[in-house]
């Protein structure tokens, strides 16, 4: 089991992996359609996208949280 202190990094790792999987799949499908070899091209695109998405998300997630905290009201919603 991974120690709880690593939860923020594990969260970003999982989130970036899932998001890059979906986005690269949609993009690959849009370009190639369901052509033979589509899944292999998708997996290659996903690996590349995840290599970029993980470090970017490590920087962007804290910024997004600060923005959300400013946009959302305090206790009770307002």
General description of the model:
The chain is an all-alpha fold and 78 residues long. The protein has 2 helices and no strands. Helix 1 (7-32) crosses helix 2 (38-71).
What labels describe this entry?
78 residues; mainly alpha
Could you tell me the radius of gyration in angstroms?
A: 17 Å
Q: Give the overall form.
A: elongated
Beta-strand percentage?
Answer: under 5%
Helix-and-strand structural type: mainly alpha
Overall pLDDT confidence: 92
Helices, by number, come to 2
Whole-Å distance between the termini? Answer: 39 Å
Main sheet?
none
User: How many β-strand runs?
Assistant: 0
Helix-strand topology string: HH
Fraction of residues in H or I helices = over 70%
**Poorly predicted runs of 5 or more residues:** none
Task: Give the gist of this structure.
With 78 residues, the chain is mostly helical. The chain has helices spanning 7-32, 38-71.
How are the elements arranged and paired?
Elements: H1 7-32, H2 38-71
